[in-house]
Amino acid sequence: MSDRYLGTGHLPEAAADGLTGAVPEHLPRRLAITLWDFSWYTRAGAGEPYADLDAVCADAASLGYNTIRICAAPLLLFGGLGLDDLATGLEIEGLGPAPTGGFYGQNTRWYDTPGGYRIDLRSRLAELFDAAARHGLHLILASWEYQQSPSFARSSDWFTAIDAVPLERRYGVLADAWHRLIGWATTLGHRDRIALVELHNEVDFSILPDLRDGGEEPLRRLRSAHPDLLITAGYGKPPHLAMHRVSAALGAAQFHVYSYGVLDALQRRIDIRDEDSEGFPNAPLRALLRPDAPSPTAYGTPAPWKLQATVVTSQMIYGYDWVDPEAWDRWLYEEYGRYHEVMHREIQSRVLAIAAWARWREVPAVIGEGWVGYTPLHGTFEEGILGRALAEHGVRTAIANGIWGVVPGSNAAPHHPLWEQRDWQRAVNRLILSPAPQG
User: Fold this and answer.
1) Which domain of life is it from (predicted)?
2) Angular region, 115: left φ>0, alpha ψ -120 to 50, beta rest
3) Residue ranges per structural domain of the chain
4) Strand pairing partners for 406?
5) pTM (2 d.p.)
6) pLDDT tens across 100-135, in order?
């Protein structure tokens, strides 16, 4: 009796060997990425994580990283927007002082910026290139300027200048700024340090139009001017069920993979991501707040222009500043069992979709952020055993499917508590950089 035909010719192929697309020969075979975003200049005061760039680069290299992903602030430094004085004397404030003491954002991630110092950002970027070269590190250059970078400045001039650029011109202005920044870095002898250039981080979650609405021509123009470099735009949540909608102009797939799952359930339950909700904070959030939490009215909000300049809401700033992190974590751990399978599956399905799209487009792929989501500074769920397991699952799936560069996790950086889990980072980075298994 013959075997039944079960359509095996239509089954999905096994993961293909090799990267999804070619990378320049001088760049590492794999990228183990630490996400320094804008924090490398907003957390650079005395005693802060990035005060000594050479020391922190050496530390990153000792943990097995070979790539740093940053906001290079191209619009501030090279945008031709009349900001030269600010670029050489940028006063960092953070979200500003809070009436209860301390500062807004003090218990959040990324916004826990006390400020109180002034920097020459152009000189500091040159210092970072130099330090990276000394320690064998490469840089992924991006911009967070239409997401939040200007909100950390004391002056609103940076935000006012970029916000005045009409929406339809923003990608063109970004491309021109990048062209000048790349030329400047080349003059300094650091062109080969550049692993990737992103027109902007998370264009789908920024104050920018759809990339297909005026962004593709500037991106193609920039790629044509620098054919030896990988140049793209970053997506925060590519449509993994409809990847054909992603722009074909991208020179690499720099996409993010967050599986919020149980975290999304909690954030929806306590209505923390919204703005101006009636009755905020609701009863579920009040149950998680510290006993000394002031009312939202008493706490107030950062200056209105700072909220305009960032994608984080005042409700999230209040909630994260005053939530009891132990109560927060307890809820996540107690509820996680209902979301375990779907969170693992979401990470896998999103990574597979990214890899398939990149292989179809014949471009290298990078997962520059992941894996759970945005939690309070002292919440430990993502750094704990369950969060680390999700991260390891994402990294293994990425490497098995030809992804070129991966983060161990978005929180694996000097300005997060996870940086102290040094053995875990070394182990994950060894996994990222180890030779891919041959099928």
Assistant:
1) Bacteria
2) left
3) 28-433
4) 32, 367
5) 0.96
6) 999 999 999 999 999 999 999 999 999 999 999 999
